């Protein structure tokens, strides 16, 4: 069985991205050319929750969208 994996998403100001898995590049390209964006979603976080919880929820949502859209790294 493999140990934990490290997923990294780099978003650049010029609307390009780079996905790394265990510090090895798995995918890269243009956000608008490679992915179909869905309508914005509302993320529910309980009142008074630490900001880190919101950041984690946003990261998971982006990762799910990236993996379902690009199909190159998953």
Q: What is the number of domains?
A: 1
Lateral arrangement of strands in the main beta sheet: 1-2-3
Structural class: alpha+beta
The quaternary structure here is: single chain
SSE topology string: EEEHH
* Helical residue percent band: 25-40%
Total number of strands = 3
The biggest sheet, with number of strands, parallel, antiparallel or mixed sense and barrel status, is:
3 strands, antiparallel
Distance between the termini: 18 Å
Unreliably modeled segments:
none
Mean pLDDT: 79
User: What's the Cα radius of gyration?
Assistant: 14 Å
Query: What's the helix count?
Result: 2
Q: Report the β-strand fraction as a percent range.
A: 15-25%
Shape summary = globular
Can you put this structure into words, describing what you see?
By secondary structure, the chain is α+β, with helices and mostly antiparallel strands. The protein has one domain. It is about 30% helix and about 25% strand. It has two helices and three strands, in the order βββαα. The two termini are about 20 Å apart. The model has no long low-confidence stretch (mean pLDDT about 80).
Offer a concise description of the structure.
The protein has 74 residues and is α+β, with helices and mostly antiparallel strands. 32% of the residues lie in helices and 24% in strands.
SSE diagram, text form:
Elements: E1 7-11, E2 16-21, E3 24-30, H1 31-34, H2 51-70
Antiparallel strand pairs: 1-2, 2-3
List keywords for this structure.
single chain; 74 residues; alpha+beta; 3-stranded antiparallel beta sheet; 24% strand; globular
